Amino acid sequence: MKMRASATIGSIAILALALAGCSGGSTANGGSSTSKADPYAPLIVKDGFKDKGGNVNVLMSADFATLDPGNSNYVQTANVGQLYYRTLTMAKETAGQPPKIVPDLATDTGKASADGMSWTYTLKKGVKFEDGSPITSKDIKYGIERTYARDVYTQAPQELDSALADDGYKGPYQGGDLKSVETPDDSTIVFHLKQPNPDFPALASRSNSAPVPQAKDTKLDYTNHPVSSGPYKVKSYERGRQLVLERNPNWDASTDPNRSALPDSFTFSLSTSQSTISQQLISNSDPTAITLDSNGALQASDTAKLNDADVKSRLAGGFLGCIDIIAFNTQSVKDPDVRKALSLAMDRNAMQVQYGGQRFGQIAQSQLTDKMAGYQAPVTDLDPSGKPKLDEAKKLLQGKTVPKTLSYGYANSAPRYKNIGTVLQQNFKELGIDLQLQPIPAANYYTTLAGDNMPDIARSGWCGGADSSSARFTVDPGVGPSIDGKTWGFSNIPRFYDTTLSKEMFDLRSQNGSKDELGKKWFDVYNKAMEQTPLVPFVHSYTLSVVGSKIHNAQVGYFFGSIDLSEVGVEK
Predict the structure, then answer these.
(1) What is the mean pLDDT of residues 271-286?
(2) Distance CA 529, CA 508 (A)
């Protein structure tokens, strides 16, 4: 799943120094603790809270790209989405660890047929939509069918769809039936696959499987009021201004052990400046406030206050499954040697400073981590310390046709993204290349990168997908082919397509084997792809987020990269 298009943090090294002592895990008394041994240990604020009631104010600098589960490939939408929609299975967060796939609307994580070619799910009894009507297997099938209408839903998740047998299906609006999904009765749904897929329970946790009642489908307007199957429903939504979620009276807690649903409501302010968010949270001017903005909306001008005892006790933190990259448009920067030279010229240390320094993440050599099954060490010429290799870069460019000008696109909501471009400008100047910075509105950022106006270079990120312990859910969307294998996939921002390697990835989708066996193969094909330098990993993120003093159970989700809304509580 794509990382947040917006992010907030100042771009000076003092941020890392100011926070050198702010780390650790949760303490027995429910406050935040400090651990000198592990600066990246999770911080949980006042956990163990179980009281219901109250309102949580969520301060955000921009609106959600979409609230439609069928058109969502963003972690922010997935985070808030778990409040108002449910899926067959769920990626349940635990601070500091990859999420675990657990049953949600289904009674279990699925039953595979003996040959592995189909998976069957049975719905729990008593699950209902917000209007009290029962959720049936047909509603889930219809939600999946919508995601095939890619002329309408340009950001529809494709991982589940790519595993199913209907490559030619175009969605419900063009008629026809999705034959690979059967609903023999209202409680049973059966998926027929192209090939056996042991990762299918993770695919069933994607927002594709959120139920959508066909009679309530308003296509692109569905984002304004998605029909709730979760503990909350949309009370009001003013785009770009405010979203209010209130309790869904037809949600049955006995069917849903995954969501605590403690607050009575959530109010999202969708146009608060990042500096204001940081100031309000640090000053505790609203004790019921949190933010979903990346890195907790922290600003450099406020960092000195983060070591204050009051603020440290309200500081949630966690190492994420999110790794930020610099993506090359391989269709415009075609020569792999030129891309490699550019990668070697990058000062990733200086880029890390834009994220606040070492306290906010580690220099990354790969998008794949040692928490993934089948781990293989990265194959890379990048300096592990992040220092540039200018001499090697210049040598690679000898005799090459070197572009005089390149473009760098960045989301215009975050100073650090522009500042990364400034670092790259200085680096590439050493190679005789003029890098021009191109701001892109944050709300349209990933749509732009997927479209015709993709710049030559862009910052992006990925948060591990449906199963952060599986390399496939990073490799396949990040550098893999389209569903039919004929071009690059829509989440493949570098537009990487190699006849041999892309076919290898396409075939890997349908191979059977243990998680470790398949993981090794995905690691191997990823390392082969990286020899052509379609992208450059640079930061494995650690997020800190200050919350109001009345907020409890605040943990940073490994997948979401912000406060996990399914666990948070608030004092009345």
Answers:
(1) 93
(2) 14
Question: Of 278, 297, 441, which is closest to residue 8 (Cα–Cα)?
Answer: 297
d(CA 562, CA 4): 10
Domains of the chain, residue spans: 63-264
Q: Strands 315-328 and 535-546: what pairing?
A: antiparallel
Q: DSSP 3-state helix, strand, coil percentages of the chain (rounded to 5)?
A: 30, 20, 50
Longest Cα–Cα distance in the chain: 69
* Contact yes or no for 278/8 (Cβ under 8 A): yes
Q: How many residues does the chain have?
A: 572
Q: Which of the listed CATH numbers 3.40.190.10, 3.30.10.20, 3.40.50.10090, 3.10.180.10 matches domain 63-264?
A: 3.40.190.10
User: Is residue 301 within 8 Å of 309, Cβ to Cβ?
Assistant: no
Mean pLDDT, rounded, of the chain: 88
Q: Would you state the pLDDT for residue 35?
A: 42
Whole-angstrom distance, CA of residue 140 vs CA of residue 145 = 9
Q: What is the pLDDT of residue 29?
A: 28
Task: Flag the least confident range among 381-390, 486-495, 553-562.
Answer: 553-562
What span, in angstroms and rounded, lies between the C-alpha atoms of 430 and 345? Answer: 8
Higher pLDDT, 194 or 420: 420
* Count of Cβ atoms closer than 10 Å to residue 96 Cβ: 21
Strand residue runs (E) in 74-187: 89-94, 97-103, 111-112, 118-122, 181-185
pLDDT for 10: 26
In this predicted model, what pLDDT tens digit does every residue of 118-136 receive, in sequence order?
999 999 999 999 999 999 9
**Whole-angstrom distance between the N-terminal and C-terminal Cα of the chain?**
34
β-bridge partners, 110: none
Tokens read off for 336: 């792999």
Reported as a single tens digit per residue, the pLDDT across 330-346 is: 999 999 999 999 999 99
User: Cα 498 to the chain's mean position, in Å?
Assistant: 26
Residue identified by tokens 């021009």 is: 436
pTM: 0.77
CA distance 331 to 537: 19
- Which structure tokens are listed for 504? 């290898």
